[in-house]
Amino acid sequence: MSTTILDMDDAELDALKARIVDAQEHDLALSKADMALLCDALETLAFLQERLTDKDITLHKMRKLLGLVKSSEKLRDLTVSPKTAESSRSRPDKPHSGASRHKAPAQTPAVIHHPLDGLKKGDDCPACGIGKVYKYEPARLLRITGNAPLTPELHLSERLRCNACGAFFTAALSADVLADGEADQKYGYSARSVITLNKYFGGTGGGPTPFYRQESLQNLLGVPVTASTAFDQCEQVANAVLPVFRHLQQRAADARHYHLDDTSHRILDQAPIQKKKRNSQREQLRTGVYSSGLIAELVSGETIILFQTNIGHAGEFIDEILQPRAPGLPPPLIMSDALPHNKPTVRTCIHALCNAHGRRQYVDVHDHFTDKVEWVLERYGQIWRFDRESQEHDHTPAERLAWHRQHSLPVMEGIRQWGAAQLVGGEDSPVEGNSGLGKAIAYFDKHFDGLTRFCTQEGARIDNNIMERHLKLVVRNRKNANFYKTATGAAIGDVLTSIIATAAQAQINLFEYLNAVQRHRARVAGDPAKWLPWNYAIQLQEQKSEG
C-alpha cells in the first residue's frame, strides 16, 4: 500500500495550525479537509519514522522519497559544480531516443476522391473560353479525424418472409462487417483490440476497478461499456493470442541472450503458498507477488519479451523458460542485477551484471562523499561514452569486445583500485567499510567480474536498462489499476502484455496484428509459428493471393 507524502508550504502549515488552535479554544470541530490533512501528516510522520529505523537509508534516498530532489542519477543533475556545468553547456543537444521506440510503420491513409462536377477532360475552359481543360495533379488535403474509442454501428439486414410457409430470407452482411467479427458478435475484433491496447499498453485503469477509466470515458462519450464487459473482451483477445504466447515461450528457451528483472505487484485473492526456497529443497510459506520480465534475443535476430506475475522472482521465471532448452546449445548470456533471486539454477549460464545498478550504489551516497563520488561517476561516464562510440563505428560483436577490452576495462580496473585504496586510507581521509561509500566500494569489488562481463564476453551488455524500460509497461498498469483481482486476471494480463511488448519491439502495427490474430484464430491455433509478430504479414499476403 502506497504512503501519501504530505507536501505543504509554510503558509499552508501556519493556516492549518491557526484553525486547529481556534477549534481547541472554541470547542469546534475541524472540517473534513483539515482532518484529512492531519491524517496525511500522521501517515507521513509514521512513514519517516519507519524509514529512519532502516540502517540502509541515506539522506539522499530520503530526499528522493519526499520529492525534495530529482530522481535522476545523471551527474549534471546531482551536482552544480562549475566543471560539470561547463561540460553540460558544451554537450550538444541530442534528440530524445525514446521518441523512436516501439514505432510502427506509418499507416497509409484512406484515399477519398472528390469529382469535379460540371466539368470534364476536353471541355472548353470556363475562364478564357479558348483552351481545353485536361487532367492535372489533384489537390491534396490530409485530414486527421477523431472518433470515440468505441463507436456503435447498427446493421439492418433486409428480410422477406413467405406468407405460405413462413420461411425467412435475410440479406447477408457485407464482407467488411464480417471481417470485424462473426454475424452474432456484438463487440468487433477492432473494439476488443482497442480496449486491450488502452488497458495493457496505455495504462487506462484506475478507480474502484481496473477498467474503471475506460468505463467512465465511454459513458462520457455516450457509448456505455461496463468494466466487466471490457475485461470480458480482453479475455477474448487473450484466448486468441494464447497459442502465439505459448509458442514464444518455447522459442525463448533456445535464446542466446536474456535480460531479467522483476517488480512488486498485488493480487488481491492470492493466498500464501508453500514453495521451495531458492537453491534449496526446503519449502517455506511465501506471500510476495512479483511481476517478472524477460527479454530473449534469438539467434535468428528476433526479440521475445515475456512477463509473469505470481509468487516468485525473475530467477524462478528464467528457470521455467530454460527447462526445455536444447542440451547441445552453448550456455546463454544473462543480464540482470546482482540480487541472488535473479540467478537461474537449472542451467549453466554466463552472468553479466548491470552497471547502472553498480553506479547507483555511488549515486545514493553522493551528498555525503561528493568529491569522491563525482570522481567515480565521471569514470563511469567514460564507459557509456565508449559504448556509444562503438555503436557509431558499427562494430561487429568481436570488434566491440576488443574495443571495450582496450578502452573500458582499464577504467573499470582503475575504479576498483581506487576503491581499495580508499578503504585503507588513500590520499585523503580513510573510508569506513560500513559507511555508504564503503558499501558501494565493496559492492563494486565483489561483483567486479559480472560488472566487467562486457569487456570479457562477446555480446554482453553494459547495463540492463532495456529491461527496465519494458517493465514500465507493468509499472504503468500497476500504477493506474493498483492490483489484479485474481491469479486468472494476472495471467490474462501477462499474456496480453507479453504479446503487445513483443509486437511493439518488432515495430509492427499492434492494432492490425491483434485484429488479424482474432480474425484467423483457428489458423493461429493450428500453426502459431506462422502468426508471430514478425512473420504474420506473410500469411495475410498468401491468403489474399489465394482469395
Short description:
The protein has 547 residues and is of the alpha/beta class. The chain has helices at 10-26, 32-52, 59-65, 75-78, 82-90, 175-178, 189-200, 212-220, 227-252, 314-322, 355-363, 370-392, 397-423, 436-446, 448-451, 453-456, 465-481, 487-505, 510-519, 521-526, 536-546; strands spanning 159-161, 168-170, 257-264, 273-276, 283-286, 290-297, 303-310, 333-336, 350-353.
Distance between the termini: 55 Å
Which class best fits the helix and strand makeup?
Answer: alpha/beta
Percent range for helical residues?
40-55%
Question: Radius of gyration in whole Å, from Cα?
Answer: 30 Å
Series of H and E elements: HHHHHEEHHHHEEEEEHEEHHHHHHHHHHH
DSSP helical segment count: 21
Which band does the percent of strand residues land in? Answer: 5-15%
Largest sheet geometry: 5 strands, mixed
- The tally of beta strands, per DSSP, is 9
Q: State the low-pLDDT regions, or none.
A: 84-100
Query: What overall form do the CA principal axes indicate?
Result: globular
Query: Strand order of the main beta sheet, please?
Result: 7-6-3-8-9
Summed over residues and divided by their number, the pLDDT gives a mean of: 85
